[in-house]
Amino acid sequence: MKALRRFTVRAQLPSALAPLQTLATNLRWTWHTPTQDLFATLDPDAWERAGHDPVRLLGEISSTRFGELAKDADTVVTVRELADDLGSYLQEPRWYQLEREDDPSLPAAVGYFSMEFGVSEVLPNYSGGLGVLAGDHLKAASDLGVPLIGVGLLYRSGYFRQSLSLDGWQLEHYPVLDPQGLPLQLLADADGAPVLVEVAMPRGRVLKARVWQATVGRVPLLLLDSDIEENEPDLRGVTDRLYGGDQDHRIKQEILVGIGGVRAVRAFCALTGHPAPEVFHTNEGHAGYLGLERIRELHERDGLSFDEAVAAVRAGTVFTTHTPVPAGIDRFPLDLVRHYFSDEMLPGVPMDRVLALGAEENPNMFNMAHMGLRLAQRANGVSQLHGAVSRGMFGALWAGFDRDEVPIGSVTNGVHGATWEAREVTALLGDCGPAANHMQRDPVSDEMLWELRGALRARLVSEVRRRVREAWLQRGASLPELSWTDHVFDPDVLTVGFARRVPTYKRLTLMLRDKDRLRDLLLDPHRPVQLVVAGKSHPADDGGKALIQEIVRFADDPAVRHRIVFLPDYDMSMARYLYWGCDVWLNNPLRPLEACGTSGMKSALNGGLNLSIRDGWWDEFYDGANGWAIPTADGIEDPLRRDDLEANALYELLATQVAPAFYERVDGVPPRWVELVRHTLTTLRPQVQASRMVREYVEDWYAPAARAAARISGDDFRPARELAAYRSRLNASWPQVEITGVDASGLPDTPEVGAEMTVRASVQLAGLAPGDVTVEAVIGRVGETDDLADSVTVAMEHVGLAEGMGERFESVVKLPHAGLTGYTVRVLPSHPLLASSAELAKIVLPG
Ligand SMILES: *Cc1c(COP(=O)(O)O)cnc(C)c1O
What residue intervals traverse the membrane (predicted)? Predict the structure, then answer.
């Protein structure tokens, strides 16, 4: 008999074991090995049956077993000690609290909005890198004591689970998750009634959502869920799947996470007394509608006009873009936005102003990234290279500015060490996270490092065998045919990993470019390579599925199947083994389309060596001694030829550099390899930590945003009103602002570096005051095109009226370089509440 419905009943724990409930539901256990060990020992069989999920485990353990455990003094003491440890982790002042003593302007709370969160496989609410990054951000924030509130959606089926058909085609499954069986708690009011967030929909309908709270150490994560009886059937489906529907489905999800998300935060803070966020961080553009909801709030509560509210919202918003290609940007047809946005949904927020926030080149589209940039005073990409790419990609929004002046910075992503580092690494090298104890440790010998790598590789090999067997059973094979899977992979063979989502730019099949050559590498009698591949293709992307099939078919060949495997259903639970055990982490994207990439960082944490195109994070972190850079054929236009060149370079590197370093042994240890591993662990391991990333966000982004938000909202929002009035004056006058004359004097006949000249300009200000603008002299090198390079800017002083030509400005400028030199003058807006003079995208140049 099959059950008609299923639901989860939580266990009644004996009082001596009651703290297990908190230990299981606070997701801190996911990065706290002593707590994991406790769960594993309560009932090892049940732990396996529960798939290493503590909430399920507590449901699996029989009451008899609980009775025994409650009488076992060791267990009871361990439970109490771990509960106390968690208690102090949650209470004690951490880095942020100490910082805030010195700098009270640090925000009391930050709202962190993301479409996906990959905290753990027990809460499968993510599809890939973006979600896992968000999860790592929350965990590192928790470790540092940063008062974040995460906000997202709870998907009934998460992302899909992947399996393979017999002929290697990706199949998708959508198991339904019961929130009661997840580490979640329903947000309820004092009377126990679930909080319902409401957002008005067209034709008088209302989209409602309840709010589940996950607890990630110290950080609450609020997840909105529309699958409730109070909703009409089609609206129940809004949170059915991640990245699963059409544009209409998608915009409803984004409305819910953005607008509903702010409402959920308000309800959460009101009920729990948690301080309200002073800064809002949107992780990618999806949740950008949160800015519109905050405009509505400011309009209703404080009587601000739309422009005044925009000024206030911008001050406290940080926008992180993750997309280096225009095609990857989230956009909606204008009519769809018009359909949903109404005075019922956002009273007092005028539609035409909303539409203008998302305006882009195509007048019929609404661009979420453009809205993100217009509603955030601070914006960043996720690696240095991606910052530069973003400045180019969005440069049109700052027409007239040089690319490097576009106000988009960068924070290079990081990964949560305690989550992704094998416990053996931490045991050998010590903690590397924010709680690192920098005591001198015993030196680690080459033998110890090599042994460590061998142990991690061996564990990967048995996991690969287990998963290959499982995969073949799912594909329809029977056990007796599968004895060969016991000999898949070899714990002593150089192991290369390649696992990621399968969009075209990641080039899953580059390694298959020359199949004979790959086969030779795999089957080399002296220096073989084994290759583990994994990744999911978006369900709608048949091209991606065809690439997977190509790999699977190659790997199915009995001649090579012991040396190359494709493992279906890449997720966090598999990824961990790969990052631990692979000797080499391969990444061959089309540069510069990888915004950052984080899987290579997770490999590096464990002493894995990266073999990668210099893209994303590897462009800034490759140092010649921590792995290998695959030369990129960036300038080659023909994509096939480019693939050929880069694949060729990859085979070359594997055959002539990687394999020899791995197999050349002195007393059983490969000295060159171990040197690379040691260097990686010493230099990369500290730098790729998510704690480094979160500190950068706090210091360089959240803190300035909090200060700006406080300044602009002080004195009953007078500064916001002033800034809005300034912008409006600027908009009216700017088209008439004109540089009417420029000259320079004072240079000797044969000037040398450092010689001084006086630059003078007259500027017609069209009604603006001299203090409303900055006039700058710009001096730098020029080539044949007269484009200034390596330029220096010097603010010019207002020195009076220029008869009939406006205002006079002048300054003394020192010649910065030898060689052909040029200069010009420009006018920019100036206001104390602007974060940079490029912010408003206004510039006047001569003539
Ligand atoms: C880290 C991680 C990713 C992201 O890896 P990239 O290098 O950005 O492709 C994707 N999926 C899982 C499960 C991860 O752990």
Answer: none
- At 570, is the secondary structure helix, strand, or coil? coil
Cβ contacts of 192-200, under 8 Å, gap ≥ 24: 195/264, 195/267, 195/268, 195/271, 196/228, 196/230, 197/224, 197/260, 197/263, 197/264, 197/267, 198/260, 198/263, 199/255, 199/256, 199/259, 199/260, 199/263, 199/345, 200/342, 200/344, 200/345
Could you give the CA distance from residue 686 to residue 583 in angstroms, rounded to a whole number? 19
Mapping DSSP to helix (H, G, I), strand (E, B) and coil, where does residue 39 land?
helix
381 three-class SS: strand
pLDDT, tens digit, 9 for 90 and up, residues 715-738: 999 999 999 999 999 999 999 999
Number of Cβ atoms within 10 Å of the Cβ of 373: 25
Per the CB < 8 A criterion, the answer to whether 451 and 492 are in contact is: no
Q: Is the CB of 373 under 6 A from ligand 1?
A: no
Structural domain for 224, as ranges = 105-414+699-714
Question: What is the average pLDDT score of the chain?
Answer: 96
pLDDT at 12: 82
Domain identity same for 602 and 472? yes
Per-residue pLDDT averaged across 727-756, rounded? Answer: 94
pLDDT tens digits along 768-827: 999 999 999 999 999 888 899 999 999 999 999 988 899 999 999 999 999 999 999 999
Q: How confident is the model at residue 327 (pLDDT cuts 50, 70, 90)?
A: confident
Q: Which of 599, 602, 619, 693 to mutate to test the pocket of ligand 1 (most atoms within 8 A of CB)?
A: 599
Instruction: Give nearest CA residue, ligand 1 atom 11.
Output: 128
- Ligand 1 centroid, distance to 500 Cα (angstroms): 6
The strand pair at 773-782 and 821-829 is best described as: antiparallel
3-state secondary structure of 574: helix
- The CATH number covering residue 173 comes to 3.40.50.2000
Substitution site in 132, 284, 386 for ligand 1 pocket (most atoms within 8 Å of beta carbon)? 132
Cα 133 to ligand 1 centre (Å): 8
pLDDT 10s digits, 344-396: 999 999 999 999 999 999 999 999 999 999 999 999 999 999 999 999 999 99
Higher pLDDT: 5 or 85? It is 85
591 and 477, same structural domain? yes
In terms of domains, do 708 and 761 share one?
A: no
Q: Which residue has the tokens 């996991």?
A: 463
Residue 1: the pLDDT is: 77
**Is 97 inside a domain boundary?**
no
- Same domain for 409 and 453, yes or no, is no
Confidence of residue 749 (pLDDT cuts 50, 70, 90): confident
Pocket test of ligand 1: the residue of 160, 500, 594, 621 to mutate, having most ligand atoms within 8 Å of its CB, is: 500
Distance 538 CA to ligand 1 centre (A): 15
Which two structure tokens, joined as six digits, stand for 523? 């089957």
3-state secondary structure of 325: coil
Query: From the CB of 135, is ligand 1 less than 6 Å away?
Result: no
Q: Tokens standing for 621?
A: 């972190």
Residue 232 CA to residue 226 CA, distance in Å, equals: 10
